[in-house]
Amino acid sequence: MNKKIVVGITQGDGNGIGYEVIIKALADERMLDLCTPVIYGSPKLFSFYKKTLHNIEHINTNLISDAKDAKQKIVNIVNCLPDNIYVEPGQPTPESAKAAMKALECAVADAKAGKIDVIVTAPFNKRAMNAEGFGFTGHTEFLEKAFGVNDAVMLMVADNLKIAVATQHIPLREVPKAITKDLLVNKLRLMKASLEKDFGIYDPKIAVLGLNPHCGDGGLIGDEEQTTILPAVQQAQNEGIMAFGPYSPDGFFGLGNYNRFDAILAMYHDQGLTPFKALAFELGVNYTAGLPIVRTSPDHGTAYELAGRDEADPRSMISAIYTAIDVFHKRAEHKSLIDSRPVLKTKVEGFSEKGDVNE
């Protein structure tokens, strides 16, 4: 039997809808034909939420202490939380924040050790997490530090729609100062590399949005388009990146121009995520581009108001798992393609094939 992709799934905040969407996503046995799921959390919480779901008749689980012991065709649970953990559906608590933190740390450690192939994260509450010393504004920032990368891109994915943000979880008043030419060029580099390696889209066309209304109206209501964004687009083009813009966001989405591009770079969080969720909320996936490992997440939050009521829609979680599996395969295909390319040898006058100066 071929080894299936091992998908590590963090529980997120146990008082939100994380367990509900995880259980609903994994209840379909066809999911177990595609991957071996490993949930990082608590069998106690899993059992509690399973009992609240009316249409889940049977789901086999395997309690393990180490991900390397995960079995195929079954839902594995790594018990990384205290046995006396309790659940309060709908309420962010210090205990639920600490549990979310612990589950994430365990999954990251196992990914580094090669025990799981990809990570899918259920949502947590950023405010509650930071009150307990998390120290990051979201999963993306934590994973950048955990895997030692200088920058990553939050890329929202749904079918042919892919929207990245130049600035992530920062106050809106700080966005103009944060947007620099170097930042934008680097984001475009990361996007091009990810679209090619992770999604198999070679020479992708990337649209870049403006910052101000009407792209500043020629400087009348802001000049960042002229002083920062356009120079960044031009430098990216000089580097062989097919970047275009800046485009005024309202007309860009209102006229459906997003269909003409492989991806879009928005300047700030809501500029990108508002149209994305309006167009693809149920099936949307949050993908972290630029990491050495594959990480996805559903595009929604903890939804405390739905917790424990059997009303949460699992489609975004299902899409997150599928996307993680697809990207893992695409990366393998890309590596195989690169490795199979012939090595070109050229002899330069005055140098031997070993690169030493000829006597």
Largest sheet: 12 strands, mixed
The span between the termini is 57 Å
Low-confidence segments: 344-359
Q: How big a fraction of the residues is strand?
A: 15-25%
Q: State the helical fraction.
A: 25-40%
Strand order of the largest sheet: 3-4-2-1-5-12-11-6-7-10-8-9
Oligomer: single chain
What general form does the structure show?
globular
Structural class: alpha/beta
Number of helical runs?
Answer: 12
Element string (H = helix, E = strand): EHHEHEEHEHHEEHHEHEHEHEEH
The value of Rg in angstroms is 22 Å
Q: Mean of the pLDDT scores?
A: 92
Beta strand count: 12
Structure overview:
The chain has 359 residues and is an alpha/beta fold. The protein is 39% helix and 17% strand. The protein is built from twelve helices and twelve strands. Strands 3-4-2-1-5-12-11-6-7-10-8-9 form a twelve-stranded mixed sheet, with helices on both faces. The N and C termini lie far apart (57 Å). The model is unreliable at 344-359 (pLDDT under 50).
